[in-house]
Amino acid sequence: MDTAESTEAPGPRGPLLRLIKDHRVAFLIVGSINTVVGFAWFVFFDVTVGRIWGYMITLLFAHVAAVLCAFVLYRRFVFRVRGNTLIDLARFESVNLVSLAVNATMLPIFVEFGRLQPIVAQAAIVFLTTLISYVGHSKLSFRRS
Fold first, then answer.
1. What is the sign of the dihedral through the CA atoms of 19, 25, 27 and 33?
2. Which of 15, 71, 108, 134 has the fewest CB atoms nearer than 10 Å to its CB?
3. Is the CB of residue 124 less than 8 Å from the CB of residue 116?
4. Nearest partner of 41 among 64, 18, 75, judged by Cα
5. What is the 3-state secondary structure (H, E, C) of 54-118?
6. Could you tell me which of 86, 83, 74, 61 has the C-alpha nearest to residue 26?
7. pLDDT per residue over 4-50, tens digit each?
8. Which residues, 6+ apart, have CB-to-CB distance to 18 below 8 Å?
């Protein structure tokens, strides 16, 4: 793969990408922020609705909040694409649903069989879902022909 090709974003340059010049680095910066924000949503929902409805509902609520935050941040600061926002959001969510499926499978295993607290289990899972997210979003979510 050519170096110029590997540093080009799939869409027009957002403000962060104009500053950083490498879409992978810009993506990782926003992704790091999203990881912290998403984990914070999980903690928030775990100590609120999770106490009543359980950690799987916590995961669902956190997923929705985190996806909406992440979509806005990526679309605003990294990719700056034009087109139908709802279609982009659907593509973005399709990638995130893969991460959610992995997360929803691993979380009960870590909690029920590994005897980890839900927040600790989620912290362990976040590394794998971040990798899935990077690959999926860079190949699908904001890609333009």
1. negative
2. 15
3. yes
4. 64
5. CHHHHHHHHHHHHHHHHHHHHHHHHHCCCCCHHHHHHHHHHHHHHHHHHHHHHHHHHHHHCCCCH
6. 74
7. 333 444 455 667 767 777 777 877 888 889 889 988 999 999 999 99
8. none
- Six token digits for residue 91: 């593509």
Burial 78-89 (b: 16+ CB within 10 A, else e): bbbbeeeeeebb
Residue corresponding to tokens 């139908």: 84
Q: Which residue has the tokens 């027009």?
A: 12
28 and 77 in contact (C-beta within 8 Å)?
no
The pLDDT score that the predictor gives to residue 112 is 94
User: Is-contact 100 16, C-beta < 8 A?
Assistant: no
Q: Which amino acid would we find at residue 109?
A: I
Phi-psi region of 23 (alpha: psi -120 to 50; beta: other; left: phi over 0): alpha
